Structures are given as C-alpha cells and as structure tokens.
Amino acid sequence: MTPATRPRLDLALHEGWQFRAADPLLGDAAQFDSDTGWRAASVPGSVHGDLLRLGLIPDPHLDRNEAEVQWVGETDWCYRLAFEVDETRLREHCTLCLEGLDTYASVWLDGERLALSDNMFVPLRLELGARLAPGRHVLGLRFDSALRRGRAVEAHHGGPRPLWNGDSSRLHVRKAPYHYGWDWGPTLLTCGPWRPVRLDLADLRIADLASPVTLADDLSHARIDLELTLEGRADLLASVRVEHLLLDPQGQVVASSGDTPRGLQHRCSLAVPAPQLWWPAGQGAQPLYTLHTRLVGGSEDAPELIDQHKRRLGLRRLRLVQAPVAGEAGSSFMFEVNGREIFCGGANWIPDDNLLERVTPERYHERVRQAVDAHLVMLRVWGGGIYEDDAFYDACDELGVLVWQDFLFACGLYPAYPALLASVEAEARSAIGRLRHRASLALWCGNNEDYTLAEEVGALGATATGADPVRFDARVIYEQLLPSLCLELDPGRPYWPGSPWTPAAPGNGQPRNSQDRSAGDRHSWEVWHKLMLPYQRYGELSARFVSEFGLQSHPSRALLAASISAEERFPGSSTLAWHNKASSPVGADGHRRLAVYLADNLRLARGTLDDEVYATQFVQAEAMRHAFEVFRRGWQQPGARACGGALVWQLNDCWPVTSWAIIDSSARLKPAWYAIRRALAPLACVVRRDGQAGTASAWLVDSRPEGAERLLQAQWRLLTLDGELVDVQDSQVVALGNGVTPLAVPPAWCRRDRPGQPLLASLTLQSAPDGAELASASAWPEPLRSYRLADPQIELTVEPGAEPGSATLVLQSRRPAKGVWIDAPQARLDDNLLDLWPGRPRRVLARGALDDLIVQCVNLLQDPAAQVMPTPTQPPAGPPS
User: Fold this and answer.
1) Are 259 and 242 in contact, with CB atoms under 8 Å apart?
2) What burial letters (b/e) apply to 807-835, b meaning 16+ CB within 10 Å?
3) What confidence category does residue 470 fall into, taking pLDDT thresholds of 50, 70 and 90?
4) N or C: which terminus of the chain has fewer CB atoms within 10 Å of its end residue's CB?
5) Facing residues of 19 across strands?
6) Residue 449 annotated as catalytic
7) pTM score over 0.85
8) Can you tell me the distance from the alpha carbon of 405 to that of 428, in angstroms, rounded to the nearest whole number?
9) pLDDT digits (tens, 9 = 90+) for 233-248
10) Active-site pick, 341, 388, 449, 622
11) In terms of DSSP bridges, do strands 402-406 and 441-445 run parallel, antiparallel, or are they unpaired?
C-alpha cells in the first residue's frame, strides 16, 4: 500500500483516564508525574460525575446537597491518560482532537505544554508531528477553576457588569452560563473533557463539507451545492478521487459525482429531480436523504478508501416572513416552509442535565418525541445553555421539529474586548459549521434578553465601544460579528440579533423596545414576573411571536419523594423552597409567587404536599391553556397573521425543581403538557364565557393546509355546577384550513349567571358524517376558588388491556368534575387532565404498573369529604412498555 492510499484512522482515547485535584505544591508539568491521589475517570465526562460515581460527593440533586459540593467548582483538577502508539498507525499528519474542554484548560503531552484553552465550545485540533513517536505517551489535562479564573479576568477588565442570574464573572467566561446557577437550576461549576478525545491520523483527510440545499420556486427540483475542504498533503491530490453519492430515503442513488480534486477546495453540485420534501411535524413527512462523500485512492480495479463522511439532509425551503398584518400596525413574524405558513407552537429547551455526559441519544430522542406528541413544532435552544449534541439535532431532523438556535449569550451586558471577540468568532464558526446542514435548523439568534437588560439599565443607545460597564459593548457581537459569520458560512438561514428583539421603525436606526408587540419577537412575562397579572389576561399579552412565557409548578410527587427527605416533604419546607430557584431583584421568591397564583384561583381544603403539587400543576396547566389558545387565535388567516408562534418557557428540567417546565427531570409529563397538547391539536376549539358580563365567544383552529375546508357538527351545552342540563343545541360549521374560524355562539350562552348559580359551557366538535368526537372545550366560572364545586362522585373502573402490561381506566362522574388528574407514577397514559360530565364516561389507556395510583381534581381539592370510588377490579401489574 502506497502512502497515497493509506486510510485515515480515527482512534478514540476514552479508556484508562485518571483524575485528581491539582496539588498546589507542584508545578504544572509535575502534576502528571506524581503517582498519588489518582482515581479512575470517565471520558467524556465531568469531575462532578466522577466524584459522584465514586461516592466522594453527595448527589447535588438531592435535598440541599448542592451547597455541600461548591468546593468542587473552586478547585483545580487534573486528568491524565497513558496510551500506546503503534508505528503502523502513524501518518503524515497526527492530530490530537479535543472536541470540548470545560473550560480553562492546558493540554500536556509527555511533560510539554501543547495548548491553552478558555472556551468550552471551541474544539482543539493539535498537530503532534514528531511528538507522536511509536511507544508510550502520557496526555495530561489541567482544568483551572472557572470561578477563580473568571473573577480575575473580570477584575482586569473593570469589575462587575449588569446581569441577571449567576456570578457576574460568567460574562467573561465562555462556559455554559447555566452552570453558574439560574432561576430554575443549581450552581454546579463543572469541568473536564466533556466531549470526545481522539487521535486523527491521516495523510489526506476530509476536513469540512458545506452542502446547502436550494429548491426551485415551484419545488419541482432541488440542487445541492457541495464545497469540500481537504487537509493534508497536496501532492497526493492527483492520485485520489472525490466521490459524492446521494441516496433517497428509500436507499436508492438519485445523484452522484466523481472527480479528481484540483486543490484542497473542491466544488460540485448535485441535481435532485422531484425531491421528497421535508416538513415540520404535523404538516407532512420527514424524509431524509443520505449524502455519502468519499476520498478514494488506488486504481479503478482496486480502489482504496482513504476517508469518508456521511450526513443526512432534508430537502425543504424555509423563510422568515415579516409582512404587513391586515388592520394592524407593524409586521408579522412567522415561518414559512415549502410555501406553507406554519404557526409555530413550541417550547424553550434548556440542557437536560447538569452533568451533560448523562444525556444519552436515547434521552434526547425521548424528550424531542415528547415535544412532538404534544404537537410542538419548534424548540428554541436557549442562549444560557450549550450547542447541543448531534443526537439532539438528529432527533429534531427525524421527528420534524424546527430549531431556533441561540448563540450562547444570556441575561447580561457582555464585554467585547479583542480576546473575547476572537474566542467568540472561533466558537461561532465551529457551531455554524457543525449545524448548518440540518433540515431542522430554522434560525440563528444572537442572544437571550441582553437587549431587554440593556433597556432596563439605560444602555441600549450606547455605542459598542468603551470600557464603562453600563455600555452595551456586545452589540458589536450581535449586530456585526455574528451576522457576518452567518452570512459567510450559512447564508440561506435567517439571523435574528436577539430574543426578544424588535427591528427599528422606518427612519429610525435604533431597535424598538423589546416589549413592542407590533413586530419581531417578545417575551410575555407580565404573568408570573413583572406585574404578576392573572393568567386569564394572557389575551392582552399576545405579540407577533411570543418566544417566552410561562408559569411555575411543582414537579411530580414521585420525583419529590425521590429527591427530598421524608422529614422535609411538606408545603413550605426549607428544602422544598431550596428546589425553587425563582428569584426577583430582592431575592428568591418563587414560593411567594406560587402562593399568589394558588390563592387567586383555588381553595386548598387540606395542607398536604400531594394537594399542593396537584394545585400548582393544575394552575400551570390552566395558564398554559389560556395562553396557547389566545396566542393561536392570533394566527387568523393569510395576510392577517397577528401571531406567528408561541414558545412556552420551558419544555424540560435539568434537576428536581419547582419550575416552569412541562416535563420534569424524571421525564414525567405535567398536566400542562396535556393542556398544551389539546390547545395545539391539529383541530382545536375554544370557548370563552363571562357569565357576569353576559358575553361569550368561541372559535376553532384547523392546521390542515389552506383550502382544505371540512364540515363539522358543533354541540353546545350549558350546565349548572351540579350537572343539570340548562341548554343544548347543535349546529354545523365549516372549518377553514390553516386558520381560525370564529363560531357563532347560541344566544343562551350570553345569559347572565344568577347569584350563586354560575353556569359552565361545553363545546364539542364532531365529524359531520359519523359524529365521532374530534375536539372539545369547556368554560368554567372563574376564579374557581369563588365557587363551591360539589362532590362529582367519580367512579373508576380498571379493565384489563389488550396489550400485555396495559389496562383501560374508565372514569365517569355524577356531576361535572374539573381537572381530573390520574397520577400513576409507573405508567404511561394516553390521555389525562380531563373534565368529566355526567353520562359521558372517558376511557384512558394505561401502559405499565398502576401501583400508587391516585385520582385528583379541583372538586376533591376543595371538598375534603369527596372521594373517588374505585371498583374492585385490579389491573395487571407490569413495567411500562
């Protein structure tokens, strides 16, 4: 085999690592020679993960152990690995690849320092050359405390700058901001080799590949423009070929190219007739093409594979549309995919754990699957976290979730001195280059809430130069550096300077206030934060695109039981409050805000933690139902898209915590998940009734394509809280595709309630041919605390299911029951958070064991004498399938 045909080798360096705290009495090189104190390490990993695995620290997620492990982030740590190199594996270029070092790190090989790193998000590629001789080598990594180093950098550059959340030194450190603590997460300043470490051995290799997709205006054909970057010996180019093969989703070759490269940059294009289009979830399928790129040497009769690269591509056209809105000022903010305007109901995504090595591809897929099952079509990767692992974007590509990708700046007035700008440029180049081929990637965004903070401290109008810490220096990052990099590396993707952000009005060079509702995106935090408005007023807080809003609740009772000691498991305990990090300028006050929203809406007859868990989760679910229903109502019709999407804060949690998440850190779905799923269903209806004012309104939303009208039957029912049927009417309605259809409510619905006799309204949509129920909605008198809800006398029957380990739960009630929640910690339910009506039983499929099952609803919460009456039938026990 000639040198020209020697294949590239990619050798993982993950086995045999050791770690220990750095010895302050030893020099840097000597740290790795000492034989004392070393313990086995996991790579990729973190020092917290290793210490926890070895039992050297308590689990920081349990009780108040977080406070007991702060010393870890204030300590310097060393990792080392002894490895052997075989002469037969050496190549012209021997490169040490460190995909991610967290954060202040020095790299040592055989006692020689090779590099320094100060950015968690910039991979290092270190050419070893003659240093990698055959035989034994020792690779060493020293990680300095990010807190100590960051504070020193901060002091050098003038001291603290304005921010929300965490230590102010984080603004100078290119480390995941949430590691410093947030209003939903603990302070865990990790360090270590958090991404793979490997040796890349090659004479000639594929270094980079750009593959932008362009679709014809009529979507009848596509073109993939390929720009390949090779690295290595240019004198070998004449003896190799570059081959591209494009396979359709069925595995058939639909386009190919092969040529001898004329330089280290190689360009060509592939034509794709009749492309199978990639669609967001609920709008169509997600076919993925596979692009194989190969570097081949040898002869045609005996080809030798030198290097190869494989990626999956979705063929679609995406636009960010900012167009006039009929009858309103400003412009829309919505996404169009393959010519179809799409309402982006979705959620904000935070890192799924504090110890990132624990987030497996399976866990990523499960979480994204849960989002899709709730009819969410967009996830915003929030700027205080990380650029997620490829497994996250794989799941989004496969399941049809659009990704709004923030660059990693959050809640602070960041500096912009030259060294930091250079680091940010390297970081952004790496992130854009890695993610730009993703079909799911919809938008690059400069930061999270930095413009809002600048407004609050009076810095928005400042120039982007100067050392005064109240100056908004980082505008040069968001308005010059990042957009220029996106234009260079990913020109087909929209870029947005920040979230929230509103572009300047015509004739004004300054962006409008970030709370402007007539253009751009908005964070609607008047509920919970700011004014603490009642969630029933979400209709006043809609905007062109609501990229954050939310309300807190406790996690599941099962998760609290697993993470808080028994003696602290009661409402108001100090440990329960510790697991609520929500704060205001005057301190942690999440528990106070929870109490206000509970007191405004419900009466708790008992003081048990189970009741409080249900109550906070119910209020969160009602708030999210109100919000998504009114935000989606703003979708209206083409030319009048007053609201283009809404992203709840937040989808997930990184530890056991009372937060805004709709899925807790044990992967259990909160009631809000079910409320959102109904509000974002392909066909959803809404009813609003004010019995005090004598007004009523109703509407439906159908996400099928425009022009796909369908005839539906609507059943309108008015009931007393005791279940007496006051009025029932039927009508027909034509549902308009991809828009909102207002419904004419019966005159009886506009009658005023009599004192002490409020009425509740129920609307059910049925298919016209067969009467099958398609959607339903109800309007109960609010606030519920003001009314006496009678014992609904719920009966629960458990029937054996058709599948092994499954059962069907049959629930019926003699009076209306509000917010019926089936809490079954070890089972998965296909429906939950139900309103029950007399004479209308509901059937719920449960997979898994039904041990520790309880049924809760608002009626039971406010009437301690009420209870659920189960039948003696017992379900089969078994693990979730």
Assistant:
1) yes
2) bbbbbbbbbbbbbbbbbbbbbebeebbbb
3) confident
4) N
5) 39, 79
6) yes
7) yes
8) 12
9) 999 999 999 999 999 9
10) 449
11) parallel
